TrEMBL record:
Species of the source: Patiria miniata (Bat star)
Keyword terms, alphabetized: Methyltransferase, S-adenosyl-L-methionine, Transferase
Gene Ontology MF annotations: protein C-terminal leucine carboxyl O-methyltransferase activity
Family from the record: Belongs to the methyltransferase superfamily. LCMT family.
Gene Ontology biological process terms from the UniProt entry: methylation; regulation of signal transduction
One Pfam short name: LCM
Name assigned to this protein: Leucine carboxyl methyltransferase 1
Binding sites annotated in the UniProt record for S-adenosyl-L-methionine: R52, G77, E177
Cellular-component GO terms for this entry: cytosol
Function: Methylates the carboxyl group of the C-terminal leucine residue of protein phosphatase 2A catalytic subunits to form alpha-leucine ester residues.
Amino acid sequence: MGDDAIYATNDDAAMCKRFAVQQGYWKDPYIQFLVKAGERKAPEINRGYYARTEGLRSLMRQFLKLTHCACQIVNLGAGFDTNFWLLKDEGLLADVFVELDMRAVTSRKCHMIRTRSKLLEPVQASHGSEPVVIEDAELRSTHYHIMWADMRDLKQVEEKLGQVGLDKNKPTLFLSECVLVYMPLDKSNSLVKWAGTNFSSALILNYEPVNMGDRFGHVMVENLRKRTCALAGVEACQSLETQKARFLSNGWEGAAAMDMMSVYRSLPADDLHRIERLEFMDEREPLQQLMDHYCIAWAWRDVNKIGLESIGFNR
């Protein structure tokens, strides 16, 4: 499998998010500085990204409020994610916010931050009087770090997180969006087990395909294979149960998973009413199919009993 094809999935996702933002699904004044405008997307794609973005951010907010922001966030395969800026604007700035991705991705993101004041100034403002250091395709500051690492290389991941002083005794949230599925199962299991056994209070959020054993799932896999982008870890994406089992068999105390239609329906009713008026949808079947084949799974390890099992969605 070519890594270039995986990099392309980052660009695709970022362009989809930018288009949905332009259509008014959610507010993100930063995405425009990281990715160019793409072509028009179908309404079901926009609603899918809305559910993904708002669903994950809902869980992140719960974690940040539970820990009073005295915590760490590690975004695995972060791509052009903008959560650092958006959460900072909400007054929800974690003590440490680390993004990890391949060097080809971090190099581009660091360049864009360096050359766009709307991205750089909030990082500087959270850093105090010391200059933000951007070099060797990495960014280092007081609260925010971008580091390059191959998620398949656990030793490298550990080394990079050690360089920013990650504290294994502090509550830590791991975020993974369509990352584990591109890794061979033994590699993703090693990463998941490391996160689930080395941190006393940890939460992991994983957005990924699910129900991949049916015809729609097979078509998804085949279409990606044609783009030389094989889903090496698809075995863990067969059902919500296999998604949970990935964590429960690798050191995590508890796990939950919901398909994206259930996540979508759990989001605030007034906001759903607002976004459903943005674009007319002829039929709901394409949305249902799409939402049935993605999920958010989350797992926790809570040795210190701070209440991580309380984080979730209202049904």
